[in-house]
Amino acid sequence: MKWNELGSVRCSVARSVAVIGDRWTLMVLRDCFLGVRRFDDFEARLGISRSIIADRLKHLVEEGVLRREAYQDRPVRHEYRLTDKGLALHPVIMAIVHWGDVHYADEAGPPLLHRHRACGCDFTPVMTCSACGESVTAREVEVRAS
Amino acid sequence: MKWNELGSVRCSVARSVAVIGDRWTLMVLRDCFLGVRRFDDFEARLGISRSIIADRLKHLVEEGVLRREAYQDRPVRHEYRLTDKGLALHPVIMAIVHWGDVHYADEAGPPLLHRHRACGCDFTPVMTCSACGESVTAREVEVRAS
DNA sequence: CACCTCCGTTCGAAAACAGAACTCATGTTC
DNA sequence: GAACATGAGTTCTGTTTTCGAACGGAGGTG
């Protein structure tokens, strides 16, 4: 198996990972959710070489996770914004952030706080069951082929 | 910035991604949550070279995500099991699976179904607010430094 | 002893990457 | 109007990582 074959495996993890399962891609997405939209801002925040950023952005646009949009003419300049498909990755990023907060925070606590506008509170993401609404733990889940 | 510096950035995404943000690591974790525990089973399921599997398993053990445990003596054989820290990654994997189910499923539907033992229903993971219990969307979240 | 099973390690080839230079279309300063 | 600045890339070169395939080894089995 090679990276480019991953997407054709009949497994949702493999298919997702083929798109977003790369360190820099995940870092780019983190920044997208923090409101970063321009090439040079990605570069400044990530501190990696421009060719990687160009490559990852192009890939995410091809996959429909980001869209490239002109924000001015003369000269034409573009920015990268999350599509709905990209916004749907929010739970993935939040789950990753939360795991990091719990297991790798230093004395100063988690680097970022997240406030739920609807209720006004700082919160942590909780995974719940779409059927009963209760929170779900790993051991309570039974997996079977469809 | 290089991959090995990622873990020392003050950002929970970076720190998490330094541990799990690698295609094969995520695939290994997927299999862990499906009950795979032995080296050769990982190899058979993933179809990638043994050195990658050895490397990823070792890394995950060092990070405390898996533990390596003898399941027999004479000869000693070990298996890899999720620790509590590893089990805490369940929401990450579920979020990835769900995104893949929604955006990359074929006509036959999602490859796997997940049943919540507590309520007996097949379910999808929903991210909710720890404070108010309501489901949370990307646009309802405000991020600020702590 | 020959062979098997499970679990890795080694090594050369292939790919990813950093960093700098280059492009290009415009705008701004001297 | 020459020189410099800006934003968004692309291209090049040489180093670093990653990977597949083959090998190793510890113990059991016939």
What is shown here, in short?
2 copies of one chain form a homodimer. Helix content of chain A is 41%, strand content 21%. With 146 residues, the first copy, chain A, is of the alpha+beta class.
Q: Span from first to last CA of chain A?
A: 24 Å
Look at the structure and give the CATH class of the largest domain in chain A.
Mainly Alpha
Biggest sheet strand line-up of chain A: 1-2
Beta-strand share of residues of chain A = 15-25%
Principal-axes shape call of chain A: globular
Largest interface: A-B, 85 and 85 residues
At CATH level 2, the architecture of the largest domain in chain A is: Orthogonal Bundle
Query: Oligomeric state of the chains?
Result: homodimer
CATH superfamily of the largest domain in chain A: Winged helix-like DNA-binding domain superfamily/Winged helix DNA-binding domain
Q: Report the count of strand segments of chain A.
A: 6
Please describe the biggest sheet of chain A, giving its number of strands, its sense, and whether it closes into a barrel. Answer: 2 strands, antiparallel
What count of structural domains of chain A?
A: 2
Calculate Rg of chain A over CA atoms.
18 Å
> How are helices and strands ordered from N to C of chain A?
HHHHEEHHEEEE
CATH topology of the largest domain in chain A: Arc Repressor Mutant, subunit A
Care to describe what's here?
The structure is a homodimer of 146-residue chains. The first copy, chain A, has helices at residues 12-20, 23-33, 39-46, 50-62, 84-87, 90-104; strands at residues 66-72, 77-82, 112-116, 121-122, 125-129, 141-145. By secondary structure, chain A is α+β, with helices and mostly antiparallel strands. Chain A folds into 2 domains: 3-87, Orthogonal Bundle (Arc Repressor Mutant, subunit A); 90-140, no CATH class. Chain A has a two-stranded antiparallel ribbon. In chain A, strands 3-4 form a two-stranded antiparallel sheet. Chain A is globular. The mean pLDDT of chain A is 95. The interface between A and B is large, with 85 and 85 residues. Chain B binds a DNA duplex (30 and 30 nucleotides) through residues 1-3, 38-40, 43, 48-55, 74-78.
